Structure formats: C-alpha cells, structure tokens
C-alpha cells in the first residue's frame, strides 16, 4: 500500500456541542480568546450561545465580526491586529466557511507575521497557528476540519488557496441545530459544495482508502437528504445527515485534495465575488465530462452511489447519465443557474483561466489542464 498521511482535529458532534466551547477553551489554559464570527451568525443567536459558554468558564474574549462572504485579505490583517492588541492566546470561530477561513488566516499572521497573500500554496506556514476551536454553522465548507483556507486577494482579484497541516483546527464542535436557521438557498449551496468535495476527493490523484470511504458516503448522504431537507427544513434528522456528510467530505478532501472545479470556482469567486456553492454547482457537469475518461472507474462508483443502474450502460451512457442526474439534482435544489449571469467577456475568460492555473487544487485533478482547456470550460459553462 502506498504511504498516505491522514489529518483530523478532535471532533465533538451532536446536540449541545457548541455549548461546551468554553470548556474546551479552558483545556488550553488560555487567558483571552478572539471570538471570530459574522453579523448573520450573531443575528441568528448562535454567537451568543458560545459567549455564554465562555462566560460560564471565565474565559475573557474579544469579538471580531468584520467579515464578509469570500473573506478579504484586509479582513484577515485587521483581525490579526485585534488579536495582537487584545493580547489573545486562542481563536474561537462561530460561523460558516468565511469566518473559519478568516480565522485561520488570522492565526497564520499572528504566528508568522507578514501579509496573508504571502502564504499561498502548500506547506508554506513555518510556525504553527494559535489554538483554534471551530463551531461550524453551515453544512458545507468543512473548514472546521480541513487543512485548507481560502482568502480573497483583493489586489489581484482572485481567491488564493493556502494548504498546510498547521491549519487543521484543534477542535471542531459540530451541532446540527445551528443549521436550522439557514434559508433554503444557503442550505442548497453549502450541501452542493459538500457533494463536490466528495466527488473531487474521490477522483483525486491523491486519494486513499480512508479518503475514498468518507468521500463516497458523503456523496450518498447529500444525494439522499438534501431535497428532503429543503422540503422539511426544521426536520433535524435531515440536517444531521447533511452535517455528517460535510464532516466526511471534509476528511476526504482535506487529505486527498480537490480538482479543477474548485480551481475554476476560486478564480471566478475572486473576480466576481460569487457565492461559492452556486459557482461550484454551475461548473460541476462540464468538469466531469472533461475528466471522465481519465478516472472512469471512479466516476462509475460515484454514479452507483447516486443510484444509477450502470450494469447495462456503456461508458458514454454512464457519463451522460451521471451528468444529467447531477444537473437535475441541483436544479431541483434551486441551483439551475449558468455563469452567463456574470457576463464575462472573452478577455475575462483568459484572465480567469490564467488565475485558475495558479490554484494548487489543479495538481490533484485526474486530468492535467492547460490554459486553453480551462478557458473552454468557462465558455461552455456560460452557454449550457
């Protein structure tokens, strides 16, 4: 068996998990926490639950919530300044992918100095970040368990990917109840992100037996539960299935990495400030068509996980059935858009392709891609 490493934080999953944040913070003997969150999570009431837990355990904290979706480089730098000014010694984050990515970026800067954009790439963080406790409020990004962080480089207008074992949080406190305040659009977007995490991890050149098991199960859980969750959004068993899928997909892609869908989505997100889950959904089918013959057996396994009867179908028929099944699935979830809404020009397509070529997620895509290949995929996404 080929050597593989597998990274994971300590994970506490179940009802009431977010209410023990103070207890876990106390385990690190910290004096003051930087509590990272965003206005939406504050309004939903989940930040207050964590604050009460910190107060119960006599943990002093400073709130930092100046974060937007697709967290900006300057937001990271501002957060690092607050951390230093307030003499914090631990980071606790309550939120979705944006606050968690920002929190990781803050940790990078307070330990290593410099500017966050200097750390793009793989294994470029020499000094470990401070203790990090994550309380995820969306079932999608899996930033609470992964070694990835995605930051918007506002100068170059592109999302940069930072990958390092130093970014794996110390603790993830996962409670499905917090996802009940999400609307259906956000629920769909984050769940589709989880689905694509599973798909790209499974066909990744960096796959392993451990990542494969998690990836396939995550795909099944999203496919079987998302539409049910959208029709019964307060039914906790569907929410629990989706947070479990997010956890499993996160363990898969954190260790196997991703592929061309995420590389292209990061470029689009940086240029147009697009919502990540929607962008991922739009790009998925064309990427499968591009990759299929280079990971055919693995895509067949994915088709079977989606209950496609592959026994009597040719390879081409399986590919088309897989693509159409995924397209219909995202449309039924309310994500039937194309990239045409962003009105990018031929010149912008070239720029998008150039930026996507810089993304480390391309390294583990099952098929190598050149600039022209990616440009063509952007064109197809706008016209489908």
Notable characteristics:
384 residues; alpha/beta; Rossmann fold; Dehydroquinate synthase-like, alpha domain; 2 domains; 6-stranded parallel beta sheet; 52% helix; globular
What do these coordinates show?
The protein is an alpha/beta fold and 384 residues long. It has helices spanning 21-27, 39-44, 46-56, 73-85, 97-112, 184-203, 209-231, 236-256, 260-272, 276-291, 296-305, 315-332, 346-357, 371-383, and strands at residues 10-13, 32-36, 60-64, 90-95, 121-122, 132-136, 148-153, 158-163, 171-174. The protein folds into two domains: 10-179, Rossmann fold (3-Layer(aba) Sandwich), CATH 3.40.50.1970; 183-383, Up-down Bundle (Dehydroquinate synthase-like, alpha domain). A hairpin with a 4-residue loop joins strand 7 (148-153) and strand 8 (158-163). The chain is globular and about 65 Å long. It starts with 9 loop residues before the first strand and ends with a helix. The relative contact order is 0.11. The mean pLDDT is 95.
